[in-house]
Amino acid sequence: MERVTFITVEAGDDLVLSFAVQRPDDWSAIESLILVRTPNYESILEERERGVKVSFERYEDDEDDLLQKIDYIEADAIVRMQTSSRQYELDVGKLDADELKKMHKILKKMNYDQKFQTFGI
User: Fold this and answer.
1) How far is CA 59 from the centre of its chain?
2) 49 Rama sector, left if φ>0, alpha if ψ -120 to 50, beta otherwise
3) Is 89 strand, coil or helix?
4) CB 3.0–4.6 Å: which of 51, 64, 88, 105 could bond 115 by disulfide?
5) Alpha carbon 90 to its chain's center
6) From the CB of residue 38, how many other CB atoms can be counted at a distance below 10 Å?
């Protein structure tokens, strides 16, 4: 399980949710796990290329990794994500209520067309 220390959210032309994940080998360092969707430009993409793109600094070679499912288990403060090539389990227990609210809001915007499954969002 990856521990998230904070998140950042952008809701302009691009919809961005970035998780700051503590590195397992150095708790003072972070790596970014980023979810990005560009709804204004998706019309020029093929259907199979549309959706939320996921990238994690640890796995820089993963291109075109799309979000398939995201679950939020409030009781355990865990976010589980399934992408086209990986699974992530994030401990979001350090996030405050405002950050969690922003996370929920941006994920709902990103899923305007039901491109991925959600639970607890």
Assistant:
1) 14
2) alpha
3) strand
4) 51
5) 10
6) 14
Q: What total number of domains does the chain contain?
A: 1
Residue 30 and residue 20 in contact, taking contact as beta carbons nearer than 8 Å: yes
- Are 49 and 36 in contact by the 8 Å Cβ rule? The answer is no
Residue 62 has pLDDT above 70, yes or no: no
If you search the block for the tokens 């709804």, which residue do you land on?
A: 39
> Which residue bears the tokens 């990238």?
55
Beta bridge pairs of residue 19: 7, 33
Local confidence band at 49 (pLDDT 50, 70, 90 cut-offs):
confident
Instruction: Provide the domain limits for residue 113.
Output: 2-119
Query: What is the average pLDDT value for the chain, to the nearest integer?
Result: 93
Q: How far apart are CA 1 and CA 77, in angstroms?
A: 12
In this predicted structure, the answer to whether residue 102 has a pLDDT above a threshold of 90 is: yes
Does residue 48 or residue 78 have the better pLDDT? 78
Residue that has been written with the tokens 């992408």 in this structure: 83
